[in-house]
Amino acid sequence: MTVTLADVAARARVSPATVSRVLNGNYPVATATRERVLRAVDDLDYVLNGPASSLAAATSDLVGVLVHDIADPFFGIMAGAAQSEIGGQEGTGRAGGEKLAVVCNTGGSPERELTYLTLLQRQRAAAVVLTGGAVEDPAHTAAMTAKLGKLAAAGTRIVLCGRPPLPEPDQAVAALAFDNLGGGRRLTEHLVALGHRRIGYIAGPVGRTTTRHRMEGHRAALAAAGLGGGAAEQDRLTVHGPYDRRSGYDAAAELLHREPALTAIVAANDTVALGACAALRDRGLRVPGDVSVAGFDDLPFSADAVPALTTVRLPLVEAGARAGRLAMGREAPPPGGIATVPADLVVRSSTARPPGGG
Amino acid sequence: MTVTLADVAARARVSPATVSRVLNGNYPVATATRERVLRAVDDLDYVLNGPASSLAAATSDLVGVLVHDIADPFFGIMAGAAQSEIGGQEGTGRAGGEKLAVVCNTGGSPERELTYLTLLQRQRAAAVVLTGGAVEDPAHTAAMTAKLGKLAAAGTRIVLCGRPPLPEPDQAVAALAFDNLGGGRRLTEHLVALGHRRIGYIAGPVGRTTTRHRMEGHRAALAAAGLGGGAAEQDRLTVHGPYDRRSGYDAAAELLHREPALTAIVAANDTVALGACAALRDRGLRVPGDVSVAGFDDLPFSADAVPALTTVRLPLVEAGARAGRLAMGREAPPPGGIATVPADLVVRSSTARPPGGG
DNA sequence: ATGAGAGCAGCAAGCGCTTTCTACGCGATA
DNA sequence: TATCGCGTAGAAAGCGCTTGCTGCTCTCAT
Question: What is the pTM (predicted TM-score) of this model?
């Protein structure tokens, strides 16, 4: 039925051991022998049995990339960049280093995150890349830490991309953390500098590090300008929701309802910001004429929106690629295992001075 | 070091065979025994060794989902929908049916498509879902057909989603083909009905089925209205490019250069259409006041664009989910193994009657 | 009471590969 | 000429799991 190593060995008139060595290329094999084996492989159309190989070698060439939402370009871009570093090298022929990068979609669910990690652990994955913010639930954090510790102990390399380091930093875990706090602060500082005083905030889902950090940056900027207000006031001008367009639309409407004199809205990300713009437009308000709007991430479509979105640029491609290299062990981990990825303000045309004020 | 089945068996005071059977749940085991085993599993924190299991059982729980560009929501949406059907069922506990859906990013490269297929074949994947258009190169088509045939022969289920059936239909391959031709035709018919006579076409990359079918639909509509012109004229009003925003921007500029009197532009997809809109805007042309623009796919952001995009709706979530179920063998394949997914015209505000005419 | 049969658990033979250790042949060295 | 060592190939022992088959222990009908 299926062709096995032994079949190839028989045809090449060598032992299975030799075939294995030719295929793995980490043992001296005479050129003539090698060629004979390679020819037999081609003739027989032999395909290595992955499970058998992984079992015997106690390692596999699977690398998992976990994302919250595969339909969101924020994750797609990072995952794509990581994957091209992992399974990428075209034309490398049958040379090593080729790994199978697989992206797993958790849908933002903690359970599925854990489930995928177990599945990856089952497969004895060579590495795991976790992208996006972490869920801030003590129980889940503990479970994740334990699971990741076990994976690391089993030799699986762990890389966090766009996610803060674990509470108890592990040597074996590299973290590429986005400067969400700094980015959020700079964004709101920009708005404040333009003269805005009543700024609504559309936050991401509750209980996510990304949500919290961006919001803390926003509030820090407000506080620094003496615009903090009380906790109650802050909450009044904040609406939480998922990272999608619809959420932005609804939240903007809600904010306008709570505070009709709003002159600016800061959104948790670009997609949400675009939803907010739509809501504003539907109410006859102009952006940025009546209300300024800002996003976060600087996804490709943000530059093309009308008006072009003021946002915070996150180098997703670079970060994803670096995470991929880290996962492959092709790049030295940053000192302390932790690196901060910059988040720079990008001013475009969706923000301007407030109508009367300024 | 790592806990094995034998360790669990020892602790539960049963044979390894019994533990295996409890875990796989496909053999009668007395309740008391089962519970003892389950307790031992928990106590020891046992995690099945996937490769060993796959080797012994000659099957694996990996399902591959191939996409051209993971950063493109068109693929992200389909892949996410498929994945939720494959690895989804929350709370199913340790019950079967749980598979590891992994998405592989080919970047549109034929070589990588083949490479991933081989990697999946290595892993003895349970199923493979291929999304998006196929590359129309005889050599590649032959290679793919051969490879898919081998996979199918090895028991891997194959599902094509948004891709036409193989040249020589295989019983084991299910295909969910998008009605790109019909959608393209209806879209252009709409433009013609509005009174447009000089319509530019921004096509996708050369040599892809999707590109060709959409374009053929466009040209069929033109021909039916007696607007076909000669082949040379058709080519003059057609520009090819990748499926990205930049390509749309450049192509629109080029079309305008070739035919300044253009009153409408049909783009290969929504992203490209948005790029075209940006180019038009930058030249001081209004959409749809001066030039109408239409896209394809109806991605989420299309409804939010300004102006909202007239496009062709593809039920990506439904198609992806169905592909997932097909891959799991949870849904009967369509008659003949082929089903056509409808592509309906969605008229919004980016198209209107041409300026002077109509 | 006894034989048949159902229900459940164990034995042991692999699944296809990797890798350690051993063996062989040959040119170089003494 | 005898010895050593290098380069290369083979033998064989698993890696951890699944599963066909065997066999034990009860229960139930005769």
Answer: 0.93
